[in-house]
Amino acid sequence: MAFLLMFVTVLHLVTLAMLFIATMEKSWWSWGDIENTDLWYKCTYENATETWLCASAKDSEWLQSVQALMILSVVLSSISFMVFLGQLFTMSKGGLFYFTGLCQLFAGFAAFAAVLIYTFQRRAILQDSRELENGHFGYCYILAWVCVPLLLISGALYVHLRKRA
């Protein structure tokens, strides 16, 4: 039981870190090594100064939806972890971590909705004159997709986890 508890805790922390990185880093869509776009900025590599020049991303309703859902996912997962720690020390023996599991499941559904919106509405989100065929999804987008099943699995594990000691 201690192993399962440790596994769920580590899974939660790893997933939370990956979710935070996916939300804050600079690569949801990339055009090679010269331009990246994320949820917040559009960055272009300047050869003359060898630096990245970043400007705020053009707001669209779809982008704001993705931003809100990713932030909601991070917040729900953080709340879930704090509640888990509280329940770990205050819950009676044999209790189930229902609230923790539900928060984690909702975090997974929010992240899932965000990446689906980004997948199907990327033309409207990017609002770019450049051809999207020349670009590709960045590592943060892929990281967000990886977080979805991990969040759902950890949520399901929390729902079935009983406090033994």
Task: Characterise the protein shown here.
It comes from Onychostoma macrolepis. It is found in: Membrane. This is Epithelial membrane protein 3. InterPro entries: PMP-22/EMP/MP20-like, PMP22/EMP/MP20/Claudin, PMP22_EMP_MP20. It is a multi-pass membrane protein. α1 packs antiparallel against α2 and α2 runs antiparallel to α3. β3 and β4 form a beta hairpin. The longest helix is centred in the middle third of the chain and has 30 residues. The chain has one domain. With 165 residues, the protein is an alpha+beta fold. The mean pLDDT is 86. It has a 5-stranded antiparallel sheet with strand order 4-3-2-1-5. It is elongated and about 65 Å long.
Given the helix and strand composition, which structural class is it? alpha+beta
The share of residues in helices is: 55-70%
Q: Give, in spatial order, the strands making up the sheet with the most strands.
A: 4-3-2-1-5
Order of helices and strands: HEEEEHHHEH
State the distance separating the first and last CA atoms.
Answer: 10 Å
Summarize the biggest pleated sheet: 5 strands, antiparallel
Pfam family, one: PMP22_Claudin
Family: Belongs to the PMP-22/EMP/MP20 family.
Protein name: Epithelial membrane protein 3
Organism: Onychostoma macrolepis
